[in-house]
Amino acid sequence: MKQKRSKVLEYNVIFTAETEGGYSVIVPDLPGCISQGDTFEKAKKNIKEAIELYLEDADPELYHVSPAESRKQFIAPIQVSVA
């Protein structure tokens, strides 16, 4: 029996702490792929599941981002002075 090989994909996600508690999470590379959780760990688990479900129906040529490609993108704070 042939064993199915799986790819390891990696996506940057953005966690936002909500004022009422918990976290919302978005995946910039997967439009509309969002989730949330009452704790950081729950939000992390939920977004992983959301990505897996998103990719089940996605065109494989569009959304397969390798870990090396994912690491080329990052978020960093920039301070700007305004008058």
TrEMBL record:
Pfam families: HicB_lk_antitox. This is HicB-like antitoxin of toxin-antitoxin system domain-containing protein. PANTHER family: ANTITOXIN HICB. It comes from the Bacteria. Residues 12-58 form the HicB-like antitoxin of toxin-antitoxin system domain.
